[in-house]
Amino acid sequence: MIADLLARHRSRLLRQTPQPALLDEAELKGLLDALARRSDLPAGALDPATAQGTALARRRSLADAITGVDWLQGALLESEELGAVERTALLEGFHRVRLALVAESGRRQRQLEEALQRGEERYLTAARAAGFAIWDWDLREQRIHWSHTLETTLGHPVENLSTLDLWLEQVHPADRDRVGTGLMRALKEGALRWSDSFQFLRRDGAWAGVLGRAWILHDPAGEPLRVLGGLVDITEQRRLEGELTEAVRLRDEFLAIASHELRTPLTALQIQVQTLAHGRKSGPQDERLQGRLLRAEVSVARMVQLVNDLLDVSRITAGQLALDLEEVELCQLVQEVVERLGPDIQRSGSELSVVLPGEVRGHWDRRRLDQVVCNLLTNALKYGGGKPVELKVELSDTEARLRVTDHGIGVAPEEQERIFRRFERAVSDRHFGGFGLGLWIVTQVLEAMDGSIRVESQVGEGAMFEARLPLRPAPARAGSPPP
């Protein structure tokens, strides 16, 4: 009876009855078909495990599913063809569908609660391991709610720091005004974030270094509502940074002492070798000895350069890179460097071409500018692979530009920023010697004269280094004594 009624009135129900947006036509047909198939069976045959409403609930929210069921029940009960028995069976069937939806709702709620609990446990475990205490400041209630990691991180019970005043009382007096003022300024100015690092008093009386960060939430009118943040214990990090700073200081001090001590005997040795190599008359019997002396001269000169580089490191890091500014003619200086490096150019196998515009005069430190030209040209010869090297000087109204280009191994784009750092290189020191200081020293010297350096390069296609120098550095540079 009910099956026939549903079959006869299905099209009318779908066409004429207002259909809620929560239940589309395909899902309504499916539910009608399921009820029609089961309507002639005993009421107990409507098993909640197979009810269409349960499947519907998995696809939509449970509230939406119950609304659809309510609408469908009301539409069917409007029919005058249903007798009392049929109405009772239909109502019982819909009741069981609702039971299935409620059971599904309970199951999903339990799953959600379990997932939230697991997520909170994982989050708190991670926060505890990271030394991270979380705080939530309700600006309307003027209360701060803390995660329980506050006690494991800094020793304070959460109720002890429930207001801003109580929170700031634990900040070191030297930091307290800055931290409080900075936080209130962030609120007043409509900032989205706040951060600061300061000393925080642990409950055991020790001071901990902490990093405080917060995100400020606003209402639609732009008024701050809540501040969500955290404190990270960085005491150990600060201690390690202090050990590292001391280690760097000791290293630089050692380099300075070692450089000074090594330079004196090396200079004397260099003079002796040069005297022997160029002062004696060579004959057939002396050619072998002469060759050895020349090679020794190159090695000693290399050692002297390395020691000078180390000495420059100690001077630069100590802030002692003073300049002796004077009028310098750059093209003449370049020619002097090229002539001095003649043996190195010959040994490299590279053909050097030099393009100079005539005179380029500027107010620079001659010795330091010589160092820049020498380092850039030496690098090009070293990494040029015996291919041609070009050196070019250009002049504009306000600056001079020195370009040194090779066609050797090149520098990968991701390495180009790193090669200007101290003790860094883009290639293995197994194939190329040195400390990785040349480009760092060049950068420091150029910046001291208000200049800059850049590189253009691709792997296997060589590299172009361009040094740019204003013709007159800032007046504050002038008159500085030489290092």
Number of strands: 12
How many angstroms does the end-to-end distance come to?
A: 109 Å
Approximately how much beta-strand content do the residues carry? 15-25%
Arithmetic mean of pLDDT: 77
Helices and strands, in order, run as HHHHHEEHHHEEEHHEHHEEHEEHEE
Structural class: alpha+beta
* Biggest β-sheet strands, sense, barrel: 5 strands, antiparallel
Give the overall shape, derived from the CA principal axes: elongated
Which range best describes the helical content: under 10%, 10-25%, 25-40%, 40-55%, 55-70% or over 70%? Answer: 40-55%
Number of alpha- plus pi-helical segments: 14
- As residue ranges, the low-confidence spans are 9-25, 36-60, 477-483
Strand order of the largest sheet: 2-1-5-4-3
Radius of gyration, rounded? Answer: 41 Å
